[in-house]
Amino acid sequence: MTAATHSTLFPQVPESADAVLDGLDPEQREVALALGGPVCVLAGAGTGKTRAITHRIAYGVRSGILQPATVLAVTFTNRAAGELRGRLRQLGATGVQARTFHSAALRQLQYFWPKAVGGELPRLVERKVQLVAEAAARCGIRLDRNELRDATSEIEWAKVTQTVPADYPAAVAKTQRDAPRDPAELSQIYSAYEQLKRERSVIDFEDVLLLTVGILQDRHDIADHVRRQYQHFVVDEYQDVSPLQQRLLDLWLGDRDDLCVVGDASQTIYSFTGATPEHLLNFRTRHPQATVVKLVRDYRSTPQVVHLANGLLSQARGRAAEHRLELVSQREKGPEPVFTEYPDEPAEAEGTACRVRDLIAAGVPAGEIAVLYRVNSQSEVYEQALADAGVPYQLRGAERFFDRAEVREAGVALRGAARAGGNDPLLDGADDLPAEVRAVLSTKGWTTTPPAGSGAVRDRWESLAALVRLAEDFEQARPGATLSDLVAELDERAAAQHAPTVQGVTLASLHSAKGLEWDAAFLVGMTEGMMPIAYAKTDEQVEEERRLLYVGVTRARFHLSLSWALARSPGGRASRRPTRFLNGLRPGSTAHGVRSGAGGGAGIDRGSGAGAGAARTGTQAEVRPRRRGPVRCRVCGRTLTDAGEMKLMRCEDCPSDMDEALYERLRAWRAARAKEISQPAYCVFTDKTLMAIAETVPGSESELVVIAGVGNRKLTRFGADVLAICAGQTVEEDSAEDSWGV
């Protein structure tokens, strides 16, 4: 969740320009009052930079100093641009343009193309992968799916750094870039790709910036037109601008300096896309008279989280590190960060899921918890572990909320019901706005209880549930509001891409977590080779990995957990070690990476999967330790590493000897138990766990507990029933309160 959407209530628009300044701290107020450029805001994580710049724009507009149509605020993602528009709307600053660089450039390109070039703008190719594949084939180069993705990324990097195909090999050598394959081959593919686009009269997203730059450079009349339109510029996340984006910004400005930039060099984590903090670091050199304001009051995180974040940067090196900001937490004390070491990755995932479930049981909403990892391929084992623990989750990176098919359908249904008013029989008996929304959305798939499992059905339900919660908050903020009022609010939010909250634990990479925040963050897989990533070779690449970890740490408001596994799979050699970035910061380590004591130091939790969470609360009665040998296919003997195969204890394509009748009896029993505890069926056991049970037919607790997805907690709750069913016995329905804790 972002700070803007942490509360889904609807604040009142400030009554006056001076009221816009209410609640700002001295530094934020200084930003808001600095309406003449150039202005440079150095803003640490959680210091309210978006609040400062939106209040600056709103104050300028509300006081009459800035005309809304002459202000252009640019940022890097549609989500961030939507948040800017949403906040400006809440502050009464309507009419201000808040866009991404690409969106602003595309709008200008579409408008001026007929005049500058003639005819219609070439078609925009949203996904260039297919064209890159054809270009490689034309060069006689065969690329698999991963190589194709890497080649596409290299072309994007070359274009935003304004590198033509012929110069690509030299640029790679100069920047010490770790190219995914021979630079000469990539240069060939890049050249063929550009030729294919010309032949088919299409352009890509990078061309949008390049062509806009070209027109503004060549046509002074068009450049003057744009400069008359936009006279005041605000750039968010300025540390992430590429050379091409900076060139476009310079052309927008011309010889003026009415510019406000906001950034933090310590959060530069996108250099692989061409982003560089040099423009931020050199701002005072380019603009000697600039007003510089530092925001260091951290309103997001507790002193314990901030202390760890500051500690990470205190060991940083390089030019960006010289400009680091020392954050000062403004929150009450909270729990200390938790450092946990696990024997293997499945145990780490299971232990993390148990701790997530404990937090939810303690009152932390699922939507306020995130599990963050270095690469997307790490997500699968955590998806499975959360599903086994009965915890709903959502993967970061899905399409925008108001672009989802179910949300569009819901909007049409709500709009129709609003027009019909009291004549719609669907609304009979609905005595308030939330009840009306629930009645309408029930025809689109919303139910009072979520569907079992994950996937598309659950995603659709979560989207509709978010609209229901939005209606409840709207009613609370504006008593007496009608369905028509809510539809108007949804239309405005859709225009601003100001989405409501979708509940569920977030699974996301550290890169995609940038700009977000949660009450609790679990940073997993914190080992050498993953953090820093193995291919980070140069000092600057390693320092960027440190900054990436800093970004991850500062996503947490209150609870922060960092964990690592000593081996990849159960029984594997414990050769891994925790990331060097935590040396001197985690208990039992020194700044030089020498661990004190064989046990690794007091304060590090020795997690072991499900037992880790239970041992902390003293509630576990272990039957026997979880199996620690390599998990091998019981059909062909191959060592298993895939989470799903490990659960089945066989390769997916090896023949199954499952007892179908037993499997059906287990499914029927599971449905009954799930109903008793008022939880989805997968909260008892997933389908794959039931399949594994039906294939192995355990005859004792020791045989049952080692099946992936069972563990000691579920053994205590359900073991007797499962073993009885496996033995062919009839299990009596038990209406007594279950120990699930519901």
Overall description:
By secondary structure, this protein is of the alpha/beta class. Helices cover 45% and strands 10% of the residues. The protein is built from 29 helices and 17 strands. Strands 13-14-12-15-16-11-17 form a seven-stranded parallel β-sheet, covered by helices on one side. Helix 12 links the parallel strand 6 (232-235) and strand 7 (259-263). Helix 2 crosses helix 3. The longest helix has 22 residues, at 456-477. The two termini are 26 Å apart.
**CA-atom Rg in angstroms:** 28 Å
Helix run count: 29
Q: How many strand elements? A: 17
Reported for the largest beta sheet, the result is:
7 strands, parallel
Q: Give the strand order, joined by hyphens, for the main sheet.
A: 13-14-12-15-16-11-17
What do the pLDDT scores average to?
A: 82
Distance between the termini: 26 Å
Kindly estimate the percentage of residues that lie in beta strands according to DSSP. Answer: 5-15%
Shape: globular
Low-pLDDT stretches:
1-8, 593-602, 610-629, 734-742
Task: Kindly state the percentage of residues in helix.
Answer: 40-55%
Which structural class do you get from the secondary structure elements?
A: alpha/beta
Spell out the key features of this protein.
globular, 17 strands, 29 helices, disordered C terminus, 6-stranded parallel sheet, 7-stranded parallel sheet, single chain, 742 residues, alpha/beta, disordered N terminus
Detail the topology: elements first, then pairings.
Layout: H1 17-20, H2 26-33, E1 39-43, H3 49-62, E2 71-75, H4 78-90, E3 97-100, H5 101-116, E4 123-124, H6 129-138, H7 145-160, H8 168-175, H9 183-200, E5 202-203, H10 205-218, H11 220-229, E6 232-235, H12 243-253, E7 259-263, H13 278-281, H14 283-286, E8 291-295, E9 297-298, H15 303-314, H16 319-322, E10 328-329, E11 338-342, H17 345-361, E12 369-373, H18 379-388, E13 393-395, H19 405-420, H20 433-441, H21 456-477, H22 483-496, E14 505-509, E15 518-523, H23 539-553, E16 556-565, E17 604-606, H24 610-617, H25 643-648, H26 660-677, H27 687-696, H28 701-705, H29 711-726
Parallel strand pairs: 1-7, 1-8, 2-3, 2-6, 4-5, 6-7, 9-10, 11-16, 11-17, 12-14, 12-15, 13-14, 15-16
